[in-house]
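Dear H.,

Thanks for agreeing to be a second pair of eyes. The structure we're designing against is below in token form, covering all 689 positions.
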């Protein structure tokens, strides 16, 4: 079984209580509640482990109870719809998958037939004559359902079931009106289904059920033919048909899970739905809740289906802050509400980030000693994102077979199969290759305007007319905008991955981009903005490796600017990403210690101090750096020295000499100076981007 750390209360507590079967052994557990099952909705941003929970549930319960799984993102029929295929929708595709998954026999369950749902699915799968795409889709669906529900005739082979079934329908159409290309097909499909697979009494019961759902007064097979025609019309007509089919699905499950199974505690069926934040996913959940509410209002027998769904969402409170790890245990302790209380149709569980203790557990079993502070660096880099923690921990353990990884190497590691960790993580976090490549380029930008300057210079042949605008919309849609607002790619971990991937792509003679050229473009963009853009221009100058020019400028304006302005500029400049290691040797700690002062004998004390301070800050604010006590003390000493050299900024610089080392020791972003008084503030990031 996969270790899920903070997600264990879900898979070992909440879901077993709902399905009535232990997670890891064949033992029934008391089920809660008996009626009015909620849809369990797992919500969180990309990489928070939503799909991993579904993976674990599928692995645990497969073959032990009826189980089906569907990915609503994969069920989106956009491409096929554009080809003129009208017998498809995300809801219907998902119902096919659910029926196919839940139908096979498992212990305590025979094979389920879905007496109501199947004729409806066959009907809406009907095709327009001559439409090859619709025919192909119908053949695939019919073959899979006939196999899953064991509806094949004795003389049919499993491989050609769909072909033979479709051929028999085609034979019935030989005499049909050639001007009518859908209705005769639907009629033939419906009649053949009932003739071959359903007895007369069963057929009458099913058709009466569909007639009761319709207000048109149709009877017999005609009611399903009309159902098919309405589905193909799309829009409100299709929505009404999907509503009917979801009700049929739940009613079939309610019948299959009869009084005897309820009394004997037979485990309930389980449906795992991924990505229900998609349009089709939202519609399916709405229809499911609507059908359950209708059944409850009519006094019908409740269906037994346990639904665990995932949804991309910020989670947390109104401001979107991460959920606390303890919150998941509280959510997993949920039980039935007191009698007379209105049922809760949705039980939302926001997945929290992993704790530092979880990361320690991931790294416990290493073949050699690790850097003592590597777990905290890994946790700080990922923000506790489970996917990031898992991939990086595996890479650390893989390298540990040869040598111990250092915190500064985390983003340069490779996975056990030899892929760069940045490539692996970005592929899983940003699924679209074109967007991923564009974000790698734009990750250096401060804001949309800077991103536009980069895109104009380096992505002129993009398929999008305004690639930076497109990337900004995609970041917003995929909820990658929950950072501090100081960069175009707002999420710190995603930005760190993108920047490191850009470093990797800039290496070598055949590289598409040159690191210095990219930062030169951004430096020129911000320089054109005048004084307002100078901190960013200096930041990109430093990122390109031209530290001497930055030191000269910071020294030159030290006595002219107010101390708070100078400190905030210094603090921002120090967040510059360092150049690729292939073309730059990291000597920041050596310079901060003063080891290179002998090379600057021709400069004064202030310039040498600024030189040491800038390089010390540049290292300390690096997300994966582990600053020593000496480095923090040196930073404070340099700031205290400069406080004695500024004509009006003694208070501000003295404040920084105390607060910045403290923040560095506590792994917090450096606080911003508030103004001439130097009392400090909290604006900005103060952490490398």
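And this is the sequence the design step returned. I haven't edited it by hand at all.
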């Amino acid at each position: 079984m996969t270790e899920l750390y903070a997600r264990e209360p879900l898979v070992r507590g909440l879901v077993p209580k709902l399905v009535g079967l232990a997670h890891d052994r064949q033992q029934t557990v008391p089920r809660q509640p008996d009626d009015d099952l909620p849809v369990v909705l797992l919500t969180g941003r990309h990489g928070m482990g939503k799909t991993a929970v579904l993976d674990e549930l599928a692995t645990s319960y497969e073959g032990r109870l009826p189980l089906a799984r569907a990915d609503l993102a994969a069920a989106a029929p956009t491409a096929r719809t554009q080809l003129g295929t009208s017998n498809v929708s995300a809801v219907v595709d998902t119902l096919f998958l659910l029926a196919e998954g839940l139908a096979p026999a498992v212990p305590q369950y025979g094979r389920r037939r879905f007496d109501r749902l199947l004729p409806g699915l066959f009907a809406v799968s009907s095709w327009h004559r001559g439409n090859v795409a619709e025919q192909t889709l119908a053949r695939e669906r019919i073959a899979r359902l006939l196999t899953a529900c064991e509806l094949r005739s004795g003389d049919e082979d499993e491989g050609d079931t769909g072909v033979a079934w479709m051929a028999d329908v085609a034979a019935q159409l030989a005499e049909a009106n050639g001007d009518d290309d859908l209705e005769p097909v639907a009629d033939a499909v419906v009649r053949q289904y009932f003739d071959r697979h359903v007895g007369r009494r069963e057929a009458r019961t099913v058709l009466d059920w569909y007639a009761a759902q319709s207000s048109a007064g149709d009877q017999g097979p005609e009611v399903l033919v009309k159902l098919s025609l309405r589905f193909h019309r799309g829009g409100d007509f299709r929505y009404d048909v999907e509503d009917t089919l979801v009700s049929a699905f739940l009613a079939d499950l309610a019948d299959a899970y009869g009084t005897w199974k309820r009394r004997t505690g037979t485990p309930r069926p389980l449906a795992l739905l991924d990505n229900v934040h998609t349009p089709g996913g939202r519609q399916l959940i709405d229809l499911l809740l609507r059908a359950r509410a209708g059944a409850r209002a009519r006094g019908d027998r409740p269906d037994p289906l346990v639904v665990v769904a995932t949804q991309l969402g910020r989670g947390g409170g109104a401001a979107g802050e991460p959920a606390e790890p303890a919150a998941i245990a509280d959510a997993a302790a949920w039980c039935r509400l007191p009698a007379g209380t209105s049922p809760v149709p949705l039980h939302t569980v926001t997945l929290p980030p992993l704790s530092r203790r979880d990361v320690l557990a991931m790294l416990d079993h290493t073949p050699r000693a690790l850097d003592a502070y590597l777990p905290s660096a890994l946790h700080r880099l990922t923000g506790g994102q489970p996917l990031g923690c898992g991939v990086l921990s595996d890479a650390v353990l893989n390298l540990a077979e040869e040598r111990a990884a250092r915190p500064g190497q985390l983003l340069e590691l490779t996975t056990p199969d030899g892929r760069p960790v940045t490539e692996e993580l970005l592929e899983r976090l940003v699924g679209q290759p074109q967007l991923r490549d564009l974000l790698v380029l734009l990750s250096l930008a401060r804001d949309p305007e800077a991103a536009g300057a980069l895109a104009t210079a380096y992505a002129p042949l993009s398929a999008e007319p305004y690639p930076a605008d497109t990337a900004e919309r995609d970041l917003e849609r995929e909820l990658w905008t929950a950072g501090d607002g100081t960069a175009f790619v707002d999420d710190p971990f995603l930005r760190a991955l993108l920047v490191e991937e850009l470093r990797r792509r800039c290496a070598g003679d055949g590289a598409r981009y040159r690191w210095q050229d990219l930062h030169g473009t951004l430096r020129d963009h911000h320089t054109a903005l005048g004084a307002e853009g100078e901190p960013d221009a200096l930041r990109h100058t430093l990122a390109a490796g031209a530290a001497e020019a930055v030191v000269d400028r910071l020294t030159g304006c030290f006595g002219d600017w107010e101390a708070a302005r100078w400190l905030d500029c210094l603090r921002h400049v120090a967040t510059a990403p360092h150049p690729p290691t292939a073309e730059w040797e990291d000597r920041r700690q050596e310079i901060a210690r003063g080891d290179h002062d002998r090379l600057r004998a021709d400069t004064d004390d202030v310039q040498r101090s600024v030189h040491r301070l800038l390089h010390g800050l540049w290292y300390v604010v690096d997300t994966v750096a582990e600053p020593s006590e000496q480095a923090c003390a040196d930073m404070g000493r340099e700031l205290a020295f400069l406080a004695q050299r500024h004509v009006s900024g003694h208070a501000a610089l003295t404040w920084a000499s105390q607060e910045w080392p403290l923040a560095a020791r506590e792994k917090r972003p450096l606080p911003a100076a508030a103004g001439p008084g130097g009392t400090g503030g909290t604006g900005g990031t103060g952490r490398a981007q």
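Two observations from my side: The longest strand covers residues 306-312. Residues 316-321 have pLDDT under 50 and may be disordered.

Warmly,
E.
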